Amino acid sequence: MSNHQKRLSVPNSWPIERKEETYTTKAGAGPHGEDGVPLLIVLRDVLGYADSKKEARYALDQDSVLVNGTPAADERRPIGMFDILAFREREEYYRVFPDEGGRLSLTPVDADAAGSKLGKIVDKRQIPGGDTQLTLHDGRTLLVEDDTSYSSNDSIVVSNDSEEVVAHFTYEEGALVTAVRGAHAGRIGRIEEIQVTPGSSDNNVRIEDFEGDDDFETVEEYVVVIDENFVEGDAEGGDGA
Predict the structure, then answer these.
(1) For 213-222, b where at least 16 C-beta lie within 10 A, e where not — what string?
(2) pTM beyond 0.90
(3) Could you give the C-alpha distances from 128 to 131, 133, 143, in angstroms and in order?
(4) Could you report the per-residue pLDDT of 21-41, keeping only the tens digit for each?
(5) Residues spanned by CATH 3.10.290.10 within the chain?
(6) Which of 62, 73, 94, 128 has the smallest count of CB within 10 Å of its CB?
(7) Which positions ≥6 away from 215 have C-beta within 8 Å?
(8) Does the CA dihedral 233-235-239-241 come out positive or negative?
(9) 56 with 73: CB under 8 angstroms?
(10) What is the pLDDT at residue 236?
(11) What is the DSSP letter of 217?
(12) In terms of CATH architecture, what is 115-169?
């Protein structure tokens, strides 16, 4: 199977120019599904830390690039929403955040913020033994003892070192959220109303814009609960990623 794919067919979230060349690197197997951006593109095309695949591989062989606290070994490893990138030699840390239009961008964070990662709960189920398994937006699973505290569409912050839940944000009216997909991707605001739709259709969410722009609506699947500290850490903006 080829490790290349045509630039014109890559997901809209990928931060690359589609008409400069015919092909680009294909993402390998891993989290984030087809929306995951190969690490090579982040290193070479976004940050400019490598001029070629060979240079990127050399950097990864030195264990100097960490993704969510773990040294990355594969330049095709998919990078996606809310991942934390750490460059130990440079002492630089970034969070992957959805920009307006749905493209992923890198926003600088400090070393403390880089020690944990935000995840949206997309599934919750009991497993043998009595524990509860939470499945997050990137496919990661986590076992918790108290099943009453967490619900689908809530967000949690998980320590990269201990895998413990260090913060929990409830999906409810008044919660601060960001839209990560759809026409309003990248916008931030507070939930004014959760419009429950009977049947199998998606629930809609009406959101008051954080910056005072017009309110907007989107489907429930497209919003992720965050908090003020999260927004302040990303307020300076960053590079496309």
Answers:
(1) eeebebbbbb
(2) no
(3) 7, 10, 11
(4) 544 566 667 787 777 888 988
(5) 4-111
(6) 128
(7) 189, 192, 206, 207, 208, 209
(8) positive
(9) no
(10) 47
(11) E
(12) Beta Barrel (2.40)
